[in-house]
Design a protein that fits this description.
Residues 11-146 form the B12-binding domain. This protein is of the alpha/beta class. 42% of the residues lie in helices and 16% in strands. The two termini are 27 Å apart.
Length: 496
Protein backbone atom coordinates (compact mmCIF):
# COMPACT_ATOMS: atom_id res chain seq x y z
CA UNK A 1 0.00 0.00 0.00
CA UNK A 2 1.22 3.52 -0.82
CA UNK A 3 0.80 5.99 2.02
CA UNK A 4 1.41 9.74 1.90
CA UNK A 5 1.49 11.75 5.15
CA UNK A 6 1.35 15.55 5.02
CA UNK A 7 1.46 18.42 7.51
CA UNK A 8 -0.08 21.82 6.78
CA UNK A 9 1.68 24.88 5.27
CA UNK A 10 0.08 27.41 7.64
CA UNK A 11 2.45 29.28 9.97
CA UNK A 12 2.10 31.61 12.97
CA UNK A 13 4.85 34.26 12.71
CA UNK A 14 4.57 35.46 16.30
CA UNK A 15 8.28 36.15 16.92
CA UNK A 16 9.72 36.74 13.46
CA UNK A 17 8.86 36.62 9.77
CA UNK A 18 7.09 33.47 8.64
CA UNK A 19 10.15 32.34 6.67
CA UNK A 20 12.44 32.37 9.73
CA UNK A 21 11.26 29.07 11.27
CA UNK A 22 10.50 25.98 9.18
CA UNK A 23 10.61 22.82 11.27
CA UNK A 24 9.57 19.27 10.37
CA UNK A 25 6.32 17.90 11.76
CA UNK A 26 7.32 15.27 14.30
CA UNK A 27 3.83 13.76 14.47
CA UNK A 28 3.62 12.53 10.89
CA UNK A 29 7.30 11.50 10.94
CA UNK A 30 6.64 9.28 13.96
CA UNK A 31 3.37 7.89 12.60
CA UNK A 32 5.02 7.00 9.31
CA UNK A 33 7.95 5.30 11.03
CA UNK A 34 5.66 3.05 13.06
CA UNK A 35 3.66 1.62 10.16
CA UNK A 36 4.42 -2.09 9.74
CA UNK A 37 6.89 -3.17 7.06
CA UNK A 38 5.66 -3.93 3.57
CA UNK A 39 4.22 -0.52 2.67
CA UNK A 40 5.58 2.48 0.78
CA UNK A 41 5.49 5.49 3.11
CA UNK A 42 6.22 9.11 2.17
CA UNK A 43 6.25 12.20 4.38
CA UNK A 44 5.81 15.80 3.17
CA UNK A 45 5.98 18.95 5.29
CA UNK A 46 4.01 21.52 3.32
CA UNK A 47 5.56 24.32 5.34
CA UNK A 48 8.44 23.93 2.89
CA UNK A 49 6.08 24.30 -0.09
CA UNK A 50 4.18 27.47 0.83
CA UNK A 51 4.75 28.98 -2.60
CA UNK A 52 3.23 27.14 -5.55
CA UNK A 53 1.37 24.90 -3.10
CA UNK A 54 -1.25 23.54 -5.47
CA UNK A 55 1.23 22.80 -8.21
CA UNK A 56 3.38 20.85 -5.77
CA UNK A 57 0.39 18.94 -4.40
CA UNK A 58 -0.83 17.98 -7.86
CA UNK A 59 2.64 16.87 -8.90
CA UNK A 60 3.30 14.70 -5.85
CA UNK A 61 -0.19 13.18 -5.70
CA UNK A 62 -0.18 12.17 -9.36
CA UNK A 63 3.39 10.87 -9.13
CA UNK A 64 2.83 8.70 -6.04
CA UNK A 65 -0.89 7.96 -6.49
CA UNK A 66 -1.23 6.99 -2.81
CA UNK A 67 -3.86 4.55 -1.61
CA UNK A 68 -4.13 6.43 1.70
CA UNK A 69 -3.39 10.09 2.49
CA UNK A 70 -2.94 11.15 6.11
CA UNK A 71 -3.30 14.85 6.95
CA UNK A 72 -2.33 16.44 10.27
CA UNK A 73 -3.74 19.83 11.26
CA UNK A 74 -4.07 22.06 14.28
CA UNK A 75 -7.30 24.01 14.74
CA UNK A 76 -6.15 27.15 12.93
CA UNK A 77 -4.79 25.04 10.03
CA UNK A 78 -7.95 23.03 9.47
CA UNK A 79 -9.46 25.25 6.75
CA UNK A 80 -6.38 24.62 4.60
CA UNK A 81 -6.59 20.92 5.43
CA UNK A 82 -10.19 20.86 4.17
CA UNK A 83 -9.14 22.40 0.84
CA UNK A 84 -6.35 19.85 0.44
CA UNK A 85 -8.81 17.04 1.12
CA UNK A 86 -11.03 18.31 -1.68
CA UNK A 87 -8.06 18.52 -4.03
CA UNK A 88 -7.04 14.94 -3.22
CA UNK A 89 -10.54 13.68 -3.97
CA UNK A 90 -10.68 15.65 -7.23
CA UNK A 91 -7.40 14.22 -8.48
CA UNK A 92 -7.67 10.73 -7.01
CA UNK A 93 -11.30 9.87 -6.17
CA UNK A 94 -10.43 6.37 -4.96
CA UNK A 95 -7.72 7.51 -2.54
CA UNK A 96 -8.83 7.30 1.07
CA UNK A 97 -8.20 10.18 3.47
CA UNK A 98 -7.44 10.06 7.19
CA UNK A 99 -7.11 13.22 9.28
CA UNK A 100 -5.45 13.53 12.67
CA UNK A 101 -3.80 15.99 15.02
CA UNK A 102 -5.28 18.36 17.55
CA UNK A 103 -8.32 19.48 15.59
CA UNK A 104 -9.47 16.01 14.61
CA UNK A 105 -9.00 14.90 18.21
CA UNK A 106 -10.91 17.81 19.72
CA UNK A 107 -13.65 18.13 17.11
CA UNK A 108 -14.21 14.66 15.63
CA UNK A 109 -17.96 14.64 16.28
CA UNK A 110 -18.43 18.14 14.87
CA UNK A 111 -16.33 17.31 11.80
CA UNK A 112 -18.42 14.18 11.23
CA UNK A 113 -21.51 16.42 10.91
CA UNK A 114 -19.83 19.11 8.81
CA UNK A 115 -19.74 19.80 5.07
CA UNK A 116 -16.22 18.34 5.04
CA UNK A 117 -17.37 14.89 6.12
CA UNK A 118 -17.91 13.51 2.57
CA UNK A 119 -14.21 13.97 1.84
CA UNK A 120 -13.02 12.19 5.00
CA UNK A 121 -12.82 8.43 5.41
CA UNK A 122 -11.13 8.15 8.82
CA UNK A 123 -10.24 10.30 11.82
CA UNK A 124 -7.36 9.42 14.15
CA UNK A 125 -7.95 10.79 17.65
CA UNK A 126 -5.16 11.38 20.16
CA UNK A 127 -1.79 9.66 19.77
CA UNK A 128 -1.64 8.44 16.22
CA UNK A 129 1.10 5.85 15.92
CA UNK A 130 -0.83 2.75 16.97
CA UNK A 131 -4.20 3.85 15.60
CA UNK A 132 -2.77 4.61 12.17
CA UNK A 133 -0.65 1.43 12.12
CA UNK A 134 -3.73 -0.66 12.78
CA UNK A 135 -5.79 1.36 10.27
CA UNK A 136 -3.27 0.52 7.54
CA UNK A 137 -3.40 -3.13 8.59
CA UNK A 138 -7.21 -3.09 8.50
CA UNK A 139 -7.19 -1.69 4.98
CA UNK A 140 -4.77 -4.49 4.12
CA UNK A 141 -7.21 -7.08 5.50
CA UNK A 142 -5.22 -7.83 8.67
CA UNK A 143 -7.35 -5.99 11.27
CA UNK A 144 -10.90 -4.69 11.76
CA UNK A 145 -11.86 -1.01 11.80
CA UNK A 146 -14.38 -1.62 14.57
CA UNK A 147 -11.66 -3.04 16.84
CA UNK A 148 -9.28 -0.07 16.65
CA UNK A 149 -9.54 2.24 19.70
CA UNK A 150 -9.52 6.02 19.06
CA UNK A 151 -10.46 5.58 15.40
CA UNK A 152 -13.48 7.20 13.77
CA UNK A 153 -14.54 5.65 10.47
CA UNK A 154 -17.33 6.13 7.96
CA UNK A 155 -20.14 3.61 7.86
CA UNK A 156 -23.47 3.91 6.03
CA UNK A 157 -23.09 7.64 5.37
CA UNK A 158 -22.15 8.42 8.96
CA UNK A 159 -19.19 8.08 11.28
CA UNK A 160 -18.62 5.52 13.99
CA UNK A 161 -16.45 6.84 16.83
CA UNK A 162 -14.68 3.94 18.52
CA UNK A 163 -13.95 4.29 22.26
CA UNK A 164 -10.82 6.13 23.28
CA UNK A 165 -7.72 3.96 23.55
CA UNK A 166 -5.04 3.69 26.20
CA UNK A 167 -1.94 5.86 26.15
CA UNK A 168 0.98 4.31 24.30
CA UNK A 169 4.03 2.59 25.72
CA UNK A 170 6.63 5.04 24.41
CA UNK A 171 9.45 2.53 24.70
CA UNK A 172 7.96 0.64 21.76
CA UNK A 173 7.95 3.53 19.31
CA UNK A 174 10.47 3.55 16.46
CA UNK A 175 12.56 6.61 15.60
CA UNK A 176 10.82 9.18 13.36
CA UNK A 177 11.31 9.24 9.60
CA UNK A 178 14.22 11.46 8.60
CA UNK A 179 15.53 9.55 5.57
CA UNK A 180 14.69 9.59 1.85
CA UNK A 181 11.05 8.81 2.63
CA UNK A 182 10.77 12.46 3.70
CA UNK A 183 10.29 14.30 0.43
CA UNK A 184 10.85 17.82 1.77
CA UNK A 185 14.04 19.31 3.16
CA UNK A 186 15.62 22.63 4.21
CA UNK A 187 14.29 22.82 7.78
CA UNK A 188 15.79 25.71 9.71
CA UNK A 189 15.72 28.17 12.59
CA UNK A 190 17.03 31.35 11.01
CA UNK A 191 20.18 30.21 9.15
CA UNK A 192 20.69 26.99 11.16
CA UNK A 193 19.56 23.52 10.10
CA UNK A 194 17.20 21.99 12.64
CA UNK A 195 15.46 18.71 13.46
CA UNK A 196 12.72 17.97 16.00
CA UNK A 197 12.58 15.27 18.67
CA UNK A 198 10.75 14.57 21.92
CA UNK A 199 11.87 13.17 25.26
CA UNK A 200 8.44 12.98 26.91
CA UNK A 201 4.74 13.45 26.29
CA UNK A 202 2.11 15.20 28.34
CA UNK A 203 1.92 17.72 31.15
CA UNK A 204 0.45 17.52 34.63
CA UNK A 205 -0.18 21.27 34.93
CA UNK A 206 -3.78 22.49 34.97
CA UNK A 207 -3.67 25.54 32.65
CA UNK A 208 -7.24 26.04 31.45
CA UNK A 209 -6.25 27.68 28.15
CA UNK A 210 -4.41 24.55 26.96
CA UNK A 211 -5.84 21.55 25.06
CA UNK A 212 -2.98 19.11 25.61
CA UNK A 213 -5.01 16.98 28.02
CA UNK A 214 -7.31 15.96 25.15
CA UNK A 215 -4.30 14.31 23.51
CA UNK A 216 -2.58 12.70 26.49
CA UNK A 217 -4.80 13.19 29.53
CA UNK A 218 -3.26 14.81 32.58
CA UNK A 219 -0.20 12.60 32.41
CA UNK A 220 3.54 12.80 31.97
CA UNK A 221 5.39 9.93 30.25
CA UNK A 222 9.12 10.05 29.50
CA UNK A 223 10.79 8.12 26.72
CA UNK A 224 13.49 5.66 27.87
CA UNK A 225 16.92 7.29 28.09
CA UNK A 226 18.39 4.85 25.56
CA UNK A 227 15.72 5.73 23.02
CA UNK A 228 16.32 9.48 23.49
CA UNK A 229 20.04 9.06 22.94
CA UNK A 230 19.41 6.96 19.83
CA UNK A 231 17.21 9.77 18.52
CA UNK A 232 19.96 12.34 19.14
CA UNK A 233 22.52 10.07 17.46
CA UNK A 234 20.27 9.79 14.40
CA UNK A 235 20.05 13.58 14.12
CA UNK A 236 23.72 14.26 14.94
CA UNK A 237 25.53 11.51 13.05
CA UNK A 238 23.18 10.49 10.23
CA UNK A 239 21.52 13.83 9.45
CA UNK A 240 24.56 15.95 10.38
CA UNK A 241 22.28 18.50 12.08
CA UNK A 242 23.48 20.41 15.14
CA UNK A 243 20.33 22.19 16.36
CA UNK A 244 17.45 20.20 17.87
CA UNK A 245 14.05 21.56 18.85
CA UNK A 246 12.67 19.42 21.69
CA UNK A 247 8.90 19.46 21.34
CA UNK A 248 8.04 18.25 24.86
CA UNK A 249 5.09 20.09 26.39
CA UNK A 250 7.17 20.71 29.51
CA UNK A 251 10.62 19.13 29.49
CA UNK A 252 11.42 19.84 33.15
CA UNK A 253 8.48 18.31 35.02
CA UNK A 254 10.89 15.74 36.50
CA UNK A 255 14.15 17.63 37.31
CA UNK A 256 16.06 14.48 38.31
CA UNK A 257 15.23 12.91 34.95
CA UNK A 258 16.51 16.04 33.19
CA UNK A 259 19.78 15.85 35.11
CA UNK A 260 20.24 12.19 34.17
CA UNK A 261 19.51 13.03 30.55
CA UNK A 262 22.00 15.92 30.57
CA UNK A 263 24.69 13.74 32.16
CA UNK A 264 24.19 11.17 29.41
CA UNK A 265 24.43 13.84 26.69
CA UNK A 266 27.57 15.34 28.27
CA UNK A 267 29.17 11.88 28.52
CA UNK A 268 28.71 11.31 24.78
CA UNK A 269 30.85 14.38 24.05
CA UNK A 270 28.86 15.78 21.14
CA UNK A 271 30.51 18.84 19.62
CA UNK A 272 28.48 21.96 18.83
CA UNK A 273 25.14 20.27 19.51
CA UNK A 274 22.46 22.63 20.83
CA UNK A 275 18.88 22.23 22.05
CA UNK A 276 15.84 24.53 22.04
CA UNK A 277 13.13 23.58 24.58
CA UNK A 278 10.11 24.85 26.50
CA UNK A 279 9.73 24.74 30.27
CA UNK A 280 7.76 26.18 33.17
CA UNK A 281 9.03 29.05 35.30
CA UNK A 282 8.43 27.47 38.70
CA UNK A 283 10.52 24.35 38.07
CA UNK A 284 13.32 26.35 36.46
CA UNK A 285 13.40 28.83 39.35
CA UNK A 286 13.71 26.09 41.97
CA UNK A 287 16.33 23.87 40.35
CA UNK A 288 19.54 25.75 39.63
CA UNK A 289 21.50 22.49 39.63
CA UNK A 290 19.31 21.26 36.78
CA UNK A 291 19.72 24.53 34.85
CA UNK A 292 23.51 24.38 35.19
CA UNK A 293 23.54 20.83 33.86
CA UNK A 294 21.25 21.80 30.98
CA UNK A 295 23.66 24.55 29.99
CA UNK A 296 26.61 22.11 29.99
CA UNK A 297 24.62 19.68 27.82
CA UNK A 298 23.95 22.31 25.16
CA UNK A 299 20.52 23.70 26.02
CA UNK A 300 20.87 27.14 24.46
CA UNK A 301 17.34 28.52 24.27
CA UNK A 302 14.32 28.00 26.53
CA UNK A 303 10.74 29.17 26.10
CA UNK A 304 9.30 30.12 29.49
CA UNK A 305 5.54 30.47 29.90
CA UNK A 306 5.32 33.58 32.08
CA UNK A 307 1.74 34.12 30.84
CA UNK A 308 0.73 37.39 32.56
CA UNK A 309 1.78 40.13 34.98
CA UNK A 310 -1.54 40.10 36.85
CA UNK A 311 -2.02 37.72 39.78
CA UNK A 312 -5.76 37.81 39.11
CA UNK A 313 -5.27 36.76 35.47
CA UNK A 314 -2.82 34.05 36.47
CA UNK A 315 -5.41 32.67 38.87
CA UNK A 316 -8.04 32.78 36.12
CA UNK A 317 -5.71 30.70 33.93
CA UNK A 318 -5.08 28.20 36.78
CA UNK A 319 -1.41 29.20 36.81
CA UNK A 320 -0.99 30.46 40.36
CA UNK A 321 1.32 33.33 41.35
CA UNK A 322 4.43 32.83 39.20
CA UNK A 323 5.64 36.43 38.96
CA UNK A 324 8.68 36.02 41.21
CA UNK A 325 9.38 32.60 39.71
CA UNK A 326 9.42 34.11 36.21
CA UNK A 327 12.07 36.68 37.13
CA UNK A 328 14.15 34.19 39.07
CA UNK A 329 14.00 31.62 36.27
CA UNK A 330 15.31 34.17 33.77
CA UNK A 331 18.05 35.24 36.19
CA UNK A 332 19.25 31.67 36.76
CA UNK A 333 19.18 30.79 33.06
CA UNK A 334 21.13 33.92 32.16
CA UNK A 335 23.69 33.03 34.82
CA UNK A 336 24.51 29.96 32.73
CA UNK A 337 24.30 31.62 29.31
CA UNK A 338 20.87 30.28 28.31
CA UNK A 339 18.72 32.51 26.11
CA UNK A 340 15.12 33.04 27.25
CA UNK A 341 12.00 33.51 25.15
CA UNK A 342 9.33 34.94 27.45
CA UNK A 343 5.76 33.87 26.69
CA UNK A 344 2.95 36.29 27.60
CA UNK A 345 -0.82 36.22 27.07
CA UNK A 346 -2.98 39.34 26.71
CA UNK A 347 -6.74 39.90 26.72
CA UNK A 348 -8.08 38.42 29.97
CA UNK A 349 -11.66 39.44 30.88
CA UNK A 350 -10.78 42.43 33.09
CA UNK A 351 -7.93 43.80 30.96
CA UNK A 352 -7.86 47.43 29.92
CA UNK A 353 -5.09 49.46 28.35
CA UNK A 354 -3.18 49.82 31.60
CA UNK A 355 -3.06 46.02 32.04
CA UNK A 356 -1.62 45.65 28.56
CA UNK A 357 1.08 48.20 29.37
CA UNK A 358 1.76 46.49 32.70
CA UNK A 359 2.15 43.15 30.94
CA UNK A 360 4.76 44.49 28.53
CA UNK A 361 6.60 46.35 31.28
CA UNK A 362 6.75 43.20 33.38
CA UNK A 363 8.08 41.21 30.42
CA UNK A 364 10.74 43.83 29.81
CA UNK A 365 11.69 43.86 33.50
CA UNK A 366 12.42 40.12 33.52
CA UNK A 367 15.30 40.62 31.09
CA UNK A 368 14.01 37.95 28.69
CA UNK A 369 16.03 37.97 25.48
CA UNK A 370 13.00 37.99 23.23
CA UNK A 371 9.25 37.54 23.51
CA UNK A 372 6.46 35.29 22.29
CA UNK A 373 3.33 37.36 22.94
CA UNK A 374 -0.16 36.14 22.12
CA UNK A 375 -3.77 37.18 22.62
CA UNK A 376 -5.92 34.87 24.75
CA UNK A 377 -7.52 32.39 22.36
CA UNK A 378 -10.67 30.35 23.14
CA UNK A 379 -9.40 27.06 21.73
CA UNK A 380 -12.10 24.39 21.30
CA UNK A 381 -12.88 22.22 24.32
CA UNK A 382 -10.70 24.21 26.74
CA UNK A 383 -11.97 25.43 30.10
CA UNK A 384 -11.24 29.07 29.30
CA UNK A 385 -13.34 28.89 26.12
CA UNK A 386 -16.48 27.89 28.00
CA UNK A 387 -15.90 30.54 30.64
CA UNK A 388 -15.48 33.24 27.99
CA UNK A 389 -18.54 32.05 26.08
CA UNK A 390 -20.61 32.11 29.27
CA UNK A 391 -19.48 35.70 29.88
CA UNK A 392 -20.27 36.78 26.33
CA UNK A 393 -16.64 37.67 25.62
CA UNK A 394 -15.95 35.50 22.57
CA UNK A 395 -16.39 37.65 19.48
CA UNK A 396 -15.25 35.05 16.93
CA UNK A 397 -16.51 31.60 17.94
CA UNK A 398 -16.32 29.96 14.51
CA UNK A 399 -13.51 31.25 12.24
CA UNK A 400 -10.75 28.99 13.46
CA UNK A 401 -8.25 30.31 10.91
CA UNK A 402 -7.65 33.13 13.40
CA UNK A 403 -7.04 30.85 16.36
CA UNK A 404 -3.25 31.02 16.27
CA UNK A 405 -2.58 33.54 19.04
CA UNK A 406 -2.10 36.55 16.76
CA UNK A 407 -5.74 37.63 16.50
CA UNK A 408 -8.21 39.06 19.02
CA UNK A 409 -11.06 36.55 18.99
CA UNK A 410 -12.28 37.88 22.33
CA UNK A 411 -13.13 41.19 23.89
CA UNK A 412 -12.71 42.22 27.52
CA UNK A 413 -15.14 43.99 29.81
CA UNK A 414 -13.29 47.20 28.98
CA UNK A 415 -12.02 46.72 25.44
CA UNK A 416 -13.62 45.67 22.16
CA UNK A 417 -11.83 43.10 20.02
CA UNK A 418 -10.60 45.84 17.70
CA UNK A 419 -9.30 47.93 20.60
CA UNK A 420 -7.58 44.90 22.12
CA UNK A 421 -5.95 44.06 18.79
CA UNK A 422 -4.67 47.60 18.29
CA UNK A 423 -3.41 48.15 21.85
CA UNK A 424 -1.68 44.75 21.85
CA UNK A 425 0.21 45.87 18.72
CA UNK A 426 0.74 49.52 19.68
CA UNK A 427 2.20 48.96 23.15
CA UNK A 428 4.48 46.27 21.80
CA UNK A 429 6.03 49.08 19.76
CA UNK A 430 5.81 51.74 22.46
CA UNK A 431 6.95 49.74 25.50
CA UNK A 432 9.17 47.02 24.08
CA UNK A 433 10.74 49.21 21.38
CA UNK A 434 13.20 48.03 18.77
CA UNK A 435 14.69 44.62 19.46
CA UNK A 436 18.35 44.61 20.44
CA UNK A 437 19.78 41.07 20.44
CA UNK A 438 21.56 40.22 23.68
CA UNK A 439 25.07 38.80 23.75
CA UNK A 440 23.50 35.36 24.35
CA UNK A 441 21.57 35.67 21.09
CA UNK A 442 24.55 37.11 19.22
CA UNK A 443 26.72 34.20 20.30
CA UNK A 444 24.20 31.81 18.73
CA UNK A 445 24.00 33.67 15.42
CA UNK A 446 26.53 36.42 14.86
CA UNK A 447 25.91 36.54 11.12
CA UNK A 448 22.16 37.12 11.14
CA UNK A 449 22.21 39.34 14.25
CA UNK A 450 24.88 41.52 12.62
CA UNK A 451 22.78 41.75 9.46
CA UNK A 452 19.82 42.78 11.62
CA UNK A 453 21.75 45.36 13.66
CA UNK A 454 23.76 46.99 10.91
CA UNK A 455 21.61 46.55 7.80
CA UNK A 456 17.95 45.71 8.31
CA UNK A 457 17.31 47.64 11.52
CA UNK A 458 18.72 51.01 10.30
CA UNK A 459 16.91 50.61 6.99
CA UNK A 460 13.63 49.66 8.64
CA UNK A 461 13.87 52.64 11.00
CA UNK A 462 14.02 54.98 8.02
CA UNK A 463 11.16 53.22 6.21
CA UNK A 464 8.93 53.06 9.27
CA UNK A 465 9.63 56.70 10.20
CA UNK A 466 8.36 57.69 6.76
CA UNK A 467 5.30 55.45 7.14
CA UNK A 468 4.65 56.86 10.58
CA UNK A 469 4.68 60.41 9.23
CA UNK A 470 2.41 59.51 6.33
CA UNK A 471 0.03 56.99 7.94
CA UNK A 472 0.23 57.49 11.70
CA UNK A 473 -0.13 54.69 14.24
CA UNK A 474 -3.57 53.60 13.07
CA UNK A 475 -2.56 53.56 9.43
CA UNK A 476 0.53 51.50 10.14
CA UNK A 477 -1.54 49.12 12.23
CA UNK A 478 -4.08 48.59 9.45
CA UNK A 479 -1.31 47.91 6.97
CA UNK A 480 0.27 45.28 9.25
CA UNK A 481 -3.10 43.64 9.90
CA UNK A 482 -3.73 43.35 6.16
CA UNK A 483 -0.30 41.80 5.66
CA UNK A 484 -0.91 39.39 8.54
CA UNK A 485 -4.24 38.29 7.07
CA UNK A 486 -2.46 37.30 3.85
CA UNK A 487 0.22 35.13 5.48
CA UNK A 488 -1.80 31.90 5.33
CA UNK A 489 -3.90 32.64 2.28
CA UNK A 490 -3.04 30.20 -0.50
CA UNK A 491 -4.70 31.76 -3.51
CA UNK A 492 -4.17 28.72 -5.72
CA UNK A 493 -6.50 26.74 -3.41
CA UNK A 494 -9.27 29.36 -3.34
CA UNK A 495 -11.53 27.52 -5.80
CA UNK A 496 -11.59 24.33 -3.74
Amino acid sequence: MKILLMSMPDVAPVIMHESAFHMPNLGIASIGANIDDGHEVYVVDLIRKRWGLRKHLERILTAIRPDLVGLSAMTWQYATCAKIMRLVKQLLPETRIAIGGYHATLMSEEIAESEDAPHIDYMVRGEGEEVFRRLVNALDGKDRLADIPSLSFKKENGFVHNPKGELLDLSRLKLPIRDQRRLTWGYHIMNRNVEVMETSRGCTRNCNFCSIRHMYGRSFRPFPLERILADIDDIYYKRKVRWIFVSDDNLVLDPERVIRLCDAIIARNYRNLFFVVQADCVTMSRNEKMVARMARAGFKSIFLGMENASKKNLAAANKGDILDASKKAVEICHRYGIMIVGGMIFGFPDDGEEEIVENYKFLKSTGADTAYCQILTPYPKTGIRQQLLDQGLVTNPDDYTRYNGMWANVKTRRLSSDELQFLFWYHNQAVMGWWNPSERIRSQGRLWTSIWLYAFKPLLKVIIAREQKRLGWRGRFQREIQARAAVNRFADLDDL
